[in-house]
């Protein structure tokens, strides 16, 4: 197959480490940092699906609001006292999540090869703007695409369609990269070529479809262009 004409990256979990917030959570809630970061992330994603599929999206809320709601739920579930000050600190940390170390080099290589790059994310525009600038990636991306414009979260097809519309190429000519197995699967169903970045050595989804390729870091993106 010809190499992809563009590469779109998921943001949260793929470019930015959603579990890095667990370091601050551990300082605020000793012994509970990891549990909080995992439950917070799970609830955040559950809420995106709930507001997308219920009443034709009538209950849509921006990703930032769902992230805050997920944090509040997780703290209640774990019996942790979430003061206003702790909530402010944790939410601010989420704006500035740690970036994975290979991001910049991979994006630089793609840019030197003339490959269109972008983010296609559940994050709302302000969140993405801060995260990209914080990671110093803003000069390496042609597109930063938020599903907020269609008010539907991934895995809705309208969310994935935004990438095709921005790049102006068929989905089969675009590589979609995600560390989230459910995201890589749905993007494959939509028609993208896909790379699932399996950073944590877990099984892929058991629904009869595999991504185009499986890797362990963003470095594996470059193998599509060998």
From TrEMBL:
The lineage of its organism: Bacteria, Pseudomonadati, Pseudomonadota, Betaproteobacteria, Burkholderiales. Catalyzes the hydrolytic dehalogenation of small (S)-2-haloalkanoic acids to yield the corresponding (R)-2-hydroxyalkanoic acids. It catalyses: an (S)-2-haloacid + H2O = a (2R)-2-hydroxycarboxylate + a halide anion + H(+). It comes from Ramlibacter montanisoli. The keyword Cytoplasm does not apply. Pfam families: Hydrolase. Keywords: Hydrolase. One of its GO terms (molecular function) is (S)-2-haloacid dehalogenase activity. PANTHER family: HALOACID DEHALOGENASE, TYPE II (AFU_ORTHOLOGUE AFUA_2G07750)-RELATED (PTHR43316:SF3), HYDROLASE, HALOACID DELAHOGENASE-RELATED (PTHR43316). Belongs to the HAD-like hydrolase superfamily. S-2-haloalkanoic acid dehalogenase family. InterPro entries: 2-HAD (IPR006328), HAD-like_sf (IPR036412), HAD-SF_hydro_IA (IPR006439), HAD_sf (IPR023214), PGP-like_dom2 (IPR023198), S-2-haloacid_dehalogenase (IPR051540). The keyword Hydrolase applies. CDD domains: HAD_L2-DEX (cd02588). Its EC number is 3.8.1.2. This is (S)-2-haloacid dehalogenase. Gene3D superfamilies: HAD superfamily/HAD-like, Putative phosphatase, domain 2.
